[in-house]
Structures are given as C-alpha cells and as structure tokens.
Design brief:
- The protein contains 10 helices and 12 strands.
- The protein is elongated and about 135 Å long.
- Helix 7 runs parallel beside helix 8.
- It starts with a helix and ends with a strand.
- It is α+β, with helices and mostly antiparallel strands.
- Helices cover 52% and strands 18% of the residues.
- The protein folds into 3 domains: 153 residues, no CATH class; 99 residues, Helix Hairpins (Orthogonal Bundle); 149 residues, Heat Shock Protein 90.
- The strands form 3 sheets. The protein has a 5-stranded antiparallel beta sheet with strand order 1-2-5-3-4, covered by helices on one side.
C-alpha cells in the first residue's frame, strides 16, 4: 500500500512538472511570436517606405505555422536590402536566432529562396531548400525559424535544471523501489529456503535418533534381521543428510568463487552412465524408466568429472521429483558442429512461463503452497547453471505446465 501511494505521488509530481514546463514553453513561444511579428511589421513598413508606398492600416504579417511567417508588401523586394533590414532589426530587439527567408517573384509566380542567415560563425549554412508557397499572388516575403523549438527550450535554463533534478529523483526512487522489492523477494526466498532446510535436515536426524534408540533395546539386539534393517535405515538417512549438506556447501563455495575444478579430457558418456546408475533406484521407486539415446560420435570434452556427474544427477533428480506419476526420462546426446549437445526430457509437471524465468535462481523453488511434497532447497538447477557456465557451456530450458520439461546443455569441444 505504501509503495502504491509512493508511485502515485511520484507520478503526480512528474505530471505537474510536465504540465508547468509546457505552460512555461507556451508563454515563451507566444512572447517570441509576438516579438517576431512586431519586428517583421517594422521591416515590412520600411520596405513600403523605400518603395514610396502607403502603409496600410491592416497588419502586414501573417503566421502560417509555428515557425513560418509571411509579410505582404505591395512592391518589388530587393533581397539584399531585405536581408540587411531583417538582420539589423532582429539584432536590435534581441531576436538572435538563425533564420531563412524567401521572396515571391510575381513575374515568374514562384517563391525564390533568399538565404540562410546564421548568427553563429561556427556552424556552416545548410544548402538552400524549397519554402512553402502562400496562396497570394502579390509581392511578399517569408521568414522561417528552423531551430525555434530547440532555441526556446535552451533558453528555459531554470526549467531544464528543475526537470533534470526531478528526473534524478525519479531514477533514484525507481532504483530504491526496485531494490526494496528485490530485497523483499530475496527475503521471502531465503525464508522458504530456511523452512525447507529445517524440514530436510529434521527428517533424517529424527529417523537416525529414533532408529539408534531402537538398537539399544535388548529385544531388538537379539534379532539379527532387525539390527540389519535398522542399521541400513541409519546409513540411508545419514547418506541423505550428507548429500544435502554437500549440496549446500557446493553452492556456498560457488558463491565465494572457491569451487575448484580438476579439468581434464573426459568421456561425457561415462559421466552420464555413472549419474544414471545412481538415479535408477530413485526412478524404480516411482515405477519409471530412464531411456538413453547417446548419438554423439565425439563425446569427449574438457571438464571436471565429479562436478559434471553431480550436474547430470541434479537434472535427473529434478525430473524424478517433479513428477506426479511414473517418470519417463529421455537422455540424448549429439554433436552439433564442434559442440556436444546433451538433452534431458521428462514427462513431469512442467514449469509455467512465469517460473521459467527464475528457475535457475539460487534458493528458488516453484511454490506449492503449504504442501511440502517435493524435497529440496532450490539449489539443484542453480548449481547446474553454475557448473555449465564454468565449463563454458550454455543451458536452455523449454517447459510447459503439465507437459514436462526439456533442458538442453551445449558444451564446446
């Protein structure tokens, strides 16, 4: 609510600034147009006096557009005299602005371009161009101010300064707002991570404690089968706890850029087979299968065997966990030019477009509400992206909610 009110307030300030800036610009423009009309009126009257003609009571000046003026005179116009009169009068009355003028030739019934007059000696005059013709067959001359708008804006120093200050305030406010929202988002993600970690660590620790207590009971110690069963449970839960701790430590090291790699020439297919062998038991528990189609003629890359196996296992583990039925996982490899392409495709729950943008972020997990039916810390895909990036590879994700996920990884060879 506070954020919304702040955005509305800032938007209102910006709208007011734009409104008053426009008002100030309109005032300056009207003042400029009035000064130009007055000056051109004087020049027109001077031309009539030179031609010894009577000055009419009606205004000689008409403004055809924002920066285009015409002055009617009943007689021939000497362009040199006209330019001298215009320049002199503009300078005397502070209209130091580049202009161009044209003179209507009644004999040939066309508007002849006169000249471009610049008060700045640094800028070269542009080439002559055609000026708009007025619907009048009498003698007249036209004056155009091509840089009128830029000149007027440039003269509004205080308004430009205040607008710049406001822009900086808006940018700072936007940055602060984005930072606050990101911090809130990160806080929520970290809170979710702590909750997940508590759940993931509490379950195996509780199981180990309960099972170890059972092993101390005399009636259990007399049963060889029971001792073996409970010992296996303790070992399984201890390995699970060890795996979770290692995963957290791996990510912690990657954040500190202390992850060490033993880079060597390896057969990527061997890494695949090792990771698949580790994941097969998990797949069998859910009644699923892992299909392989290893078509890469050259599966050799330079990398760290252990981290690549862990990376592959994380992908397979996700495909198994995020599946409400029997997981069917297709693992394929192939060569694309001088690159090795590795793909994991599953028939799982899939990921929405909204979540796909953040699925590789640290601690991020797709929200399942209050139901904690999928174990994990939100570190698996973050670790995958980190390892692939450190090996000079790229990760691509294609997914549709309810239709499974395809993750493609490409390594240079």
């Amino acid at each position: 609510m506070v954020t919304l009110l702040a955005i509305i307030s800032m938007s209102g300030i910006v709208v007011l600034q734009v409104f008053w800036f426009r008002k100030a610009f309109d005032v300056r423009e009207r003042q400029f147009d009035q000064n130009v009309s007055t000056s051109l009126q004087r020049v027109g009257e001077q031309l009539l006096q030179i031609n010894r003609q009577q000055i009419p009571n009606a205004r000689l000046v008409k403004q055809l557009s924002s920066n285009y003026f015409v002055v009617s005179v009943n007689g021939e116009i000497d362009t040199k005299v006209l330019e001298s009169l215009l320049t002199t009068d503009f300078i005397q009355h502070g209209l130091i602005l580049d202009f161009e003028y044209g003179v209507y030739d009644c004999n040939h019934q066309k508007l002849v371009y006169g000249n471009y007059v610049s008060f700045s000696q640094q800028e070269p005059n542009p080439p002559p161009r055609e000026l708009p013709k007025w619907k009048n067959d009498l003698y007249y001359f036209t004056v155009n101010f091509p840089d009128k708008t830029n000149n007027l804006i440039g003269s509004m120093n205080i308004w430009l300064f205040s607008s710049l200050v406001l822009l900086m305030v808006v940018l700072f406010f936007s940055f602060a707002l984005v930072t606050i929202l990101r911090q809130k988002q990160l806080s929520d993600v970290q809170k979710d991570f702590v909750n997940n970690m508590t759940h993931e660590f509490k379950t195996p620790v509780s199981t180990i404690l309960v099972t170890s207590r059972l092993l101390t009971k005399p009636e259990v110690q007399q049963q060889v089968g029971a001792i073996e069963h409970y010992s296996n449970m303790i070992q399984t839960e201890a390995l699970r706890l060890k795996s979770q701790v290692e995963r957290v430590l791996q990510v912690a090291l990657s954040d500190q850029k202390k992850m060490e790699y033993q880079m060597e020439e390896i057969d990527f297919h061997e890494c695949l087979e090792h990771a698949i062998a580790s994941a097969k038991e998990l797949v069998k528990e859910k009644g699923g299968t892992i299909n392989t189609d290893l078509n890469a003629a050259n599966p050799r890359i330079r990398g760290d065997r252990m981290h690549l196996i862990n990376m592959i296992f994380n992908l397979l583990d996700n495909s198994i966990k995020y599946n409400n039925g029997s997981p069917v996982i297709d693992v394929t490899t192939g060569n694309v030019g001088r690159k090795l392409q590795f793909t994991v495709r599953d028939n799982g729950t899939g990921i929405s477009k909204k979540n796909s943008k953040r699925i590789f972020d640290q601690f991020y997990r797709v929200s399942t509400g209050d139901v904690h039916d999928v174990k994990g810390f939100g570190l698996g895909l973050y670790y995958v992206r980190h390892v692939v990036k450190d090996h000079g590879g790229k990760v691509k994700l294609q997914s549709e909610l309810g239709r499974g996920t395809t993750i493609t990884i490409i390594f240079r060879q």
